[in-house]
Amino acid sequence: MQKKMATVHLLLLDPSQNDAEALISLLRNAGRATRAYRVTSSEDLEDAIKSSHWDLMLARDVDQEIQPADALATIRRLDKDIPFILLTDRHDRERSVTFLKAGAQDTVPSEYTDLLVLVVRRELAALEERQKRRAMESHLREAEQRCQLLLESSKDAIAYINDGMHVYANQSYLDFLAYDDIDELICLPVLDALASQSQSPYKDFIKAFRENDTGSMSLNCVARRNDDKEIDIALAVSAATYDGEPCLQIVIQPETSDLELEEKLRTISSQDLTTGLYNRSYLMDSLGTAIVTAGEKSQSGALAYIALDDFMGMRSKAGIAGADILLGDLAAILRQQVAEDMTLARLSDDAFCIVAHPCEEARLVDTCEAIRKNIEDHLFEINGLTVQQTVSIGIAPITENAPKASDLMGRAHTASATVRKQEGHARGNGIHVYNPADFETLDDSNSTEAIQNALDQNRFRLLFQPIINLRGEGEEHYEALVRMLDKDKKEVSPYDFLPPMGPSEMAGKIDRWVTLQTIKQLANHRSKGHDTRLFLNVTGETLRDKTFTSWLSVALKAARLPGDSLIFQVREGDAVNHLKQAREFSNSLRELHCKTSISQFGGALNPFNTLKHVQVDYVKIDGSFTEEIQKSDEAKEKVKEMVEELRSSGKLTIIPLVENATVLATLWQAGVNYIQGYYLQAPVAEMNYDFSDQ
């Protein structure tokens, strides 16, 4: 499935339309699909806020019809969660403090565009988290209501206890203890519901429960009913909340041997049969609990992923039974080294894990080093065969900022795999601690170098995605997409490695590589009888390159490829920023009989203004509209109006990101010419789509 664009619905308060367009282009170049509206008065702002949803407001701190302070006051008065960022000409501490006190999220000097992009990302991420929290709170309220209904109808006798007093009991609990009404039980001490011989053991039991901080505990005791009858019961206690307050949940039932059986079953279900250690299920539950606790109590810990080096080679040598013997011996070594306050488990055939929480990272590193050395020095005896084994250990910190359990496990696994990439450790036998900065931060200082290395090492490849004519005219169109293999052999777009703002020579190099390789592949494809045309994406750097079209002419002649087989596609933001160069580029392409397309259309403040200056044959409407027309009649009408205006001016329209058939009827009725998306085909390495099926 194609990744949905996170469209930013942006309010702009700026007297200059050109400056406003520059802000839109800045965000789009930073990878954010943007739908913007420039407000011109207080009434305009209030109408916009009331009629639509907005994610962000950027206000330039200059004299204009509506002052930034008034705009911020309007947002606060209407009680809307719209992050507000003030763009200033210079840093003014007092003014910044004034705006932040009034509810603004930040003030940023206009010239610091890189800082502005980071601040916008931060505020959009914070907004998304607030929206998620509100949704979760709503779901929580619904869940609490459902839980209340379940409690009321449950056959189990359940009560909630706060400070030793009953604060809630369901009907089954009342019936079990022979109470007619909840009012008789509310604020009654739990001890009054127990026989005298069970009151002291209950106090010790609750004290142990609070000290151990375990999930749940059980006690066999004697209850005293309201009719003074006594009955042997099993009382289970667990931590809970009631009406938002922490409390204890107790469940009582007649004493039977089932509790002992259940405990045995629970032990078996959490154990790995080969090694006797905890299994994966128990480990992931423990890890999840540790992550939650780290967030609530700011307690740090760490997770160790212990991978056996060349496990398959060892098993082929020793056999499956022999491998099980080795795993049992290895588990014994691990037990000797791992402290009792750590959770040791077998994760898979060739991996073990340790959850240490709370624990200093350095302590777990020392433990893992002792494990590594003991395993390296140990001689495993398997049916008369001596086997040596080593391990590669990855350690991931558990902090209040840790991701969910599966992602944290991924970090530890990545760190373990990194051991084999270190000098002198090609076969493993080492320890590596995961550092998010090494894996999750793109360093602008070496990004272009990474691209150049990929070009030099032939780690670029082309993919092709079909573009289908909705009118059934049987044309063969594809869009050429470039992918780069990064250091981890994963496919990424090389354009993502370029800085989000400012010129980049590397962008021009990528454009030329894509163009040349496309010409070669298309010439070969057409020589087999296909009348195929390709869309090629070019950047603003190529628009400004006056030598590109002359170079292209030579390449087309060398390949004996007609110019009308290529359609060069320019992003709307680049065309707006370099309008004159875009016009000259389009005109030069026409002399070579190449066609032109504009993509991401519809995000600018005045998108049709661009088409007055730049002659294009195709218009690809911004992909954010594709998702919105499935949710909103207003969006459907907007797309229909846009397509109609484009059609009347002789432009052929393309709708991308089509992922299901439900949207096709709307696009057909709107008069759209072409569609593209995973519903038809994902990007693939060959131009092999069967256009005759359409």
Explain this structure.
By secondary structure, the protein is an alpha/beta fold. It folds into 4 domains: 8-133, 3-Layer(aba) Sandwich (Rossmann fold), CATH 3.40.50.2300; 154-266, PAS domain (Beta-Lactamase, 2-Layer Sandwich), CATH 3.30.450; 277-440, Alpha-Beta Plaits (2-Layer Sandwich); 452-599 and 606-616 and 671-693, TIM Barrel. Helices cover 45% and strands 23% of the residues. It is built from 24 helices and 26 strands. The protein has an 8-stranded mixed barrel, surrounded by 4 helices. Strands 2-1-3-4-5 form a 5-stranded parallel beta sheet, sandwiched between helices. The protein has a 5-stranded antiparallel beta sheet with strand order 7-6-10-9-8. Helix 1 links the parallel strand 1 (8-13) and strand 2. Helix 11 crosses helix 12, helix 16 packs parallel to helix 18 and helix 23 (633-648) crosses helix 24 (664-670). The radius of gyration is 33 Å and the shape is globular. The two termini are 21 Å apart. The model is unreliable at 440-446 (pLDDT under 50).
Features of the shown structure:
single chain; 694 residues; alpha/beta; Rossmann fold; Alpha-Beta Plaits; 4 domains; eight-stranded mixed barrel; five-stranded parallel sheet; 24 helices
List the helices and strands and how they pair.
Layout: E1 8-13, H1 17-29, E2 34-38, H2 42-51, E3 56-60, H3 68-77, E4 84-88, H4 93-102, E5 106-109, H5 113-153, E6 157-162, E7 165-169, H6 171-176, H7 182-185, H8 196-212, E8 216-224, E9 230-242, E10 245-254, H9 258-269, H10 280-297, E11 301-308, H11 311-337, E12 342-348, E13 351-356, H12 361-377, E14 380-382, E15 385-387, E16 391-398, H13 405-419, E17 430-433, H14 436-440, H15 444-456, E18 460-469, E19 476-485, E20 491-492, H16 505-526, E21 532-538, H17 540-543, H18 548-559, E22 566-571, H19 572-577, H20 579-591, E23 595-601, H21 607-613, E24 618-621, H22 624-628, H23 633-648, E25 652-655, H24 664-670, E26 674-675
Parallel strand pairs: 1-2, 1-3, 3-4, 4-5, 16-17, 19-21, 21-22, 22-23, 23-24, 24-25, 25-26
Antiparallel strand pairs: 6-7, 6-10, 8-9, 9-10, 11-13, 11-16, 12-13, 14-15, 18-19, 18-26, 19-20
Helix pairs in contact: 2-3, 11-12, 16-18, 23-24
